[in-house]
Amino acid sequence: MKVLISKLRGTNTIFSHLLKTFSLVWAASRHWTVAWMVLLLVQGLLPAASLSLTPRVVNALVAVTGTGISAATIQTVLIPVGLLVGIMLLAELVNSAAEWIRTGQSELVQDYVSSLIHKQSVAVDYGLYEYSEYNDQLGRAREGASGRSLALLESTGSLLQNSITLIAIAALLLPYGVWLPVVLAISAFPAFCVLLYLNKVQYQWSQKTTTDRRWLMYYDLLLTNSATAAEVRLFDFGNYFQSAYQNLRRKLRNEQLQLLKQQTIGRFIAGLLGLIVSGLALAWIGRQVLLGILNLGDLALFFQAFKQGQGVVKSVLSNLGQIYRNGLFIGNLFEFLKIQPKIVDPLNPVPVPAKPQQGIEFRQVSFSYPGTQEPVLENFNLTLPAGKIVAIVGDNGAGKSTLIKLLCRFYDPDFGSIQLDGIDIREFSVQQLRRLITVLFQSPIPYYTSASENIALGDISAPSNQAEIETSAKASGIHEKISQLPLGYNTMLGKLFPQGTDLSGGQWQRLALARAFFRRAQIIILDEPTSAMDPWAEHDWLERFRTLASDRTAVVITHRFTLAMQADIIHVMRAGQIVESGNHGQLLALDGLYAQSWKTQMQTNLTSSQA
Questions:
Q1: E strand residue ranges, 477-585
Q2: First CA to last CA distance, the chain
Q3: Is 303 in contact with 282 (CB distance < 8 Å)?
Q4: Which strand (E) or helix (H) includes residue 440?
């Protein structure tokens, strides 16, 4: 009973996925889908129409055999043969049209499903990307999602088409015996059972090996990506990662071949059973012909109808198996699309201040990353005054970068609140809050597009203004380098695409700074903004920094005290807490952690310069 209930639930799930898939395909390609359904009906009727003419053609040929060539004999044969040829030509025309329609439909569905996945990938919470389970789910959704959607619909369409053909063929066979259509179905039933079982096994294997297949993608990336090329060569990682890739491929390949072996044996046994049933039916019809009960036209009709009908029954059952299998896989897409973000707008968002007047305040904030027990911040308090430059320094793991993620609402605090001008930032629209902020992350992304567009990406909502782009580039110190490029600001950056020009790490960082300044945001957050710059480049940038941050609220997270000393206020952070605060002079006079680190760093710089 439990097994039956489980199967019924599975059927309901597949039916639900089928309805969702049809809605998806309809939304992506409405007109193509209408044409597809019309052709299904025509394609379903044409085989039966062709079979119905077979006795007329055979009997006409028998009737004129040995009568010689005359107008009367030609006319006797010409009409049924002409009709049969017309149906065959129509079938070819319909098949060609169907191929064209399926291709057009496939392209539209692929684009539509890709847009759904991309939209959902951006909409889900940032924190989900830190879960392996989510990455597996995303991988399953992306893995042939558009192809599975269309395959599920095509399987359903083929089922309808073949069902129409089967009903028509069964109607042709009924006069020869009511039991013949039943035998037709029984002959293909073993293959159907085998198909369902193997499809389920294949799906379970695919689900189980998702992580392994992501490992393959990772190894492939390590061996072929430009970002890893230097280390792979220097440390001779090539053979190591190739071996890891091949070992995993060997494991998956052997498992796949074992599944294929099961499929081959199962299909052979099922086909053998079907052949035995077909042989018995053909023996019976042969007996009827020998007894003179049926004529040659009947024999030709029965032979073709039974043979073609058996093929159609197999196709129908195969379509059901494909629907089952694709329904299982397409469920991954719908499960992914069902994920709801937790970082959302409130029901009635409060307007975001055009310019902070009081500043930002962390009040008794406690936070742990998902899946971990140890808090990064606990009862944390910090004030970032509006219009001031605040530097936050501290050792790795102190929680400095976590402050950025909370302020940008990539995460929400477990307890406490973050307030902007006295209002909890959860009361604002997420998009509007983020529009107020520009961030230069510790590892900025190199966007492989023109230098001009690279900077303009800082504010895609604003019309591109070349003068403002160049102003931002000058402010970050990258203008001179861009001007020396082959096409200036129109030069393609990066080596991924033809005619691209690469930049050094520090130059990419300056470009990201230009992008951050171009955003014109009132809150500027810089996470190690000069980490990839040499001391001369850093000194050049520091001279501009206070002017750039003038009249804005700036937060600088850094390990470099030469940058921190430019701030109005410096906070020293350790183990998730602020342990010292003040300006550069006050902290040196305090002779605490900051002063000790300052002396150590200055001594290191002095030693390096003397060397």
A1: 523-527, 553-557, 569-574, 577-582
A2: 82
A3: yes
A4: strand 437-440
Using DSSP, state whether 450 is helix, strand or coil: strand
Question: Shortest CA distance to 310 belongs to which of 271, 339, 346, 344?
Answer: 271
Phi, psi of 177 (to 5 degrees): 160, 130
* Neighbouring residues of 551: CB distance < 8 A, sequence distance ≥ 6: 387
- Are 464 and 454 a contacting pair, CB within 8 Å? no
230 or 359, which is more confident: 359
- Please enumerate in sequence order all residues whose Cβ is within 8 A of that of 339, keeping only pairs 6 or more positions apart, or say none: 120, 124, 128, 137
H or E segment to which residue 394 belongs:
strand 389-394
What's the pLDDT tens digit per position in 477-488?
889 899 999 899
**pLDDT band (50, 70, 90) for residue 303:** low
Show the beta-strand stretches assigned E in 238-385: 359-367, 377-385
Structure-token pair, residue 376: 């990064």
How high is the pLDDT of residue 5? 38
What are the tens digits of pLDDT across the range 539-573?
Answer: 666 666 676 677 889 898 887 777 788 888 999 98
**At 527, is the secondary structure helix, strand, or coil?**
strand
Q: What is the dihedral of CA 473, 474, 476, 477, to 10 degrees?
A: 110
Task: Give 437-485 pLDDT, tens digit per residue.
Answer: 888 877 778 888 899 998 988 888 777 788 889 988 888 888 989 999 9
CA–CA gap between residue 25 and residue 13 (Å, rounded): 18
- 22-71 per-position pLDDT tens digit: 777 788 888 888 887 788 778 777 777 776 777 677 677 767 666 666 67
- Identify which of 162, 166, 193 has the alpha carbon closest to the alpha carbon of residue 321: 193
Residue 190 to residue 181: CA distance in whole angstroms? 16
CA-CA distance, 472 to 487, in Å (whole number)?
Answer: 18
Q: Are 113 and 149 in contact (CB under 8 A)?
A: yes
CB atoms within 10 A of CB 246: 12
d(CA 286, CA 581): 101
Number of H helices, E strands in the chain: 20, 10
pTM of the model: 0.68
SS3 of residue 412 by DSSP: coil
